[in-house]
Amino acid sequence: MTAPVFLVESLAHVQAGGTVTVDGPEGRHAVSVRRLRVGEEVVLTDGQGTGAHGTVAAAEGKDRLTVAVAELRTEEAPDPTITVVQALPKGDRGELAVETMTETGVDAIVPWPAARCVTQWKGERAAKALGKWRATAREAGKQSRRLTFPEVADPLSTKQVAALLADADFAAVLHEEGSAPLATAELPATGRIVLVVGPEGGVSPEELALFAEAGAKPYRLGRTVLRTSTAGTAATALLLGRTGRWS
């Protein structure tokens, strides 16, 4: 089994041969939940692409872990990057979408309150829901042993999503009535890929028209219709394989 990953605020001044102390919630999880012991391998990451690989030097109290760092590793920046604009699903399906997309390898997630979304984020609910998405991305990033966690952006309006699509090197709207399969779309070798995943009720004709003006054509994934909480994960996996990032 690969070494567990724990998130730290910064690794800017950490060097091989030194030590890092992990406390707070991460330290409690390591000491009291995972019950790590001296000598066990661990990885510390800042979530921005850097990892400190080492072993447990000490476990004190209920929430204090000291790690002896053996080496620092840095992940190469992904290219092309994959951003998924995710329409707001009902209930906890939003966290499910964020979790599985993170585990698969998405680089950024943009919440989108589409016209046909049953769920709408407003006021305190918006801040709470966004916090859940970001916490889910962090936990899924650790669980999947990532060193670079995906950014979960602030929600964007439909016009803002259109601007994001216009700036992409490849933009697509996942749509069950799309005439072209995403599996055969011509993809850029570098740059940014942006996919739009609509709500359960589908992307409205007005939204489709606006996104088309921005250069995003409708594409289908396959013969079956996926739910909004799973379509982004399936599309991300497809593109990671096609772009060579999974090779």
From TrEMBL:
The lineage of its organism: Bacteria, Bacillati, Actinomycetota, Actinomycetes, Kitasatosporales. The keyword Signal does not apply. GO terms for molecular function: methyltransferase activity. PANTHER family: 16S RRNA (URACIL(1498)-N(3))-METHYLTRANSFERASE, RIBOSOMAL RNA SMALL SUBUNIT METHYLTRANSFERASE E. It catalyses: uridine(1498) in 16S rRNA + S-adenosyl-L-methionine = N(3)-methyluridine(1498) in 16S rRNA + S-adenosyl-L-homocysteine + H(+). It comes from Streptomyces endophytica. Its main location: cytoplasm. This is Ribosomal RNA small subunit methyltransferase E. It is found in: Cytoplasm.
